[in-house]
Amino acid sequence: MKLGTPEHRDLFCRQFIETHVSFDPERLPWPSLDGETLALLRAFPFWSYAESIEARSARMVELFAHTIDDPLIKEAINVQAVEEYRHERLMSHVLSFYGVEAPALPVGEPRATREDFYVFGFGECTDVFIGFGAFSLAREKEIFPSALLGIFEQLLFEEARHVVFFTNWWRYEETRAGRDAPVRRTIEALKYHAKAALGTVGDAPKTPMPKLEGRFAEVFADVTPVRFLQAALAENRRVMAKVDPRLLRPALMPTLGTLALAGLSVLPPRAAPPVRDLWKETFERQTVAA
Ligand SMILES: [Fe+2]
Ligand SMILES: [Fe+2]
């Protein structure tokens, strides 16, 4: 399949729309937690930050959809907005259900030009790669019950779908505009990743990233940069293997991660271990119980 063609557009849009899963965050099988696990969940330092990121993403994606003329691309971006709003709802449900104290952070008025969406999309690619590492380590350490991790696995898979959609859409647009030479593309991708890392999307409120501290820092104290990169790369391979092989995947973060790992260690990335599909298990249990 040739990039930048109507067939390419139909594939990445339809795949995205058709893999949307309907559910209400409030009706998911949230497990009850013992005192120690609940204390650990409440000590997670990123709740306010994560909720504000989701709230801002939802508004930004919804606004950007209004600027799109192509009806199929518009429909797909609207599906992403639905999922980002649901992430915001899911986060706030976690906070109320488990009694987590996390003050709401200012969301501001997001801007949604094409340039802003590029920065946002590449920023999501970075966030998903880091999320893969964090989630994989949380699963490995079994710090939360699998039913809870299963719910967050679904959320992370939705974010993975967002970055696959974004990567294909960006290449579709760049190819059609005659800007698809590999060197230029790599420089552009690096530029947008850097802009995202510097938090230069529109008038985004400057919210400093919290530090990992307290009980959480203790649990992850033995995680070295090498171990984190190995976990992120293995999880990236595992999740991206679920995506239609005809679609492009984000390449820059896995490439930079692999290079960093090579610089930090002479050991190759570990093979992906067999991993249980927690989301599926959670919902199968729910079906059996119903
Ligand atoms: Fe999200
Ligand atoms: Fe997203």
Q: Secondary-structure element order, as H and E? A: HHHHHHHHHHH
Structural class: mainly alpha
From the spread of the alpha carbons, the general shape counts as: globular
Distance between the termini: 44 Å
Number of domains: 1
Could you tell me the mean pLDDT? Answer: 89
* Helical content (DSSP H or I, runs of 4+): 55-70%
Assembly type: single chain
**Beta strand %:** under 5%
Largest sheet: none
Based on DSSP secondary structure assignment, what is the total number of beta strands? 0
**Radius of gyration in whole Å, from Cα?**
19 Å
User: Counting H and I runs of at least 4 residues, what is the number of helices?
Assistant: 11
Summarize the structure.
This protein has 290 residues and is mostly helical. It contains eleven helices and no strands.
Describe the secondary structure blueprint for this structure.
Layout: H1 6-18, H2 35-43, H3 47-66, H4 71-97, H5 114-141, H6 146-176, H7 182-197, H8 214-219, H9 225-240, H10 252-264, H11 278-289
The structure holds fe (ii) ion (2 copies).
Residues 54, 57, 84, 87, 159 line the site of one fe (ii) ion.
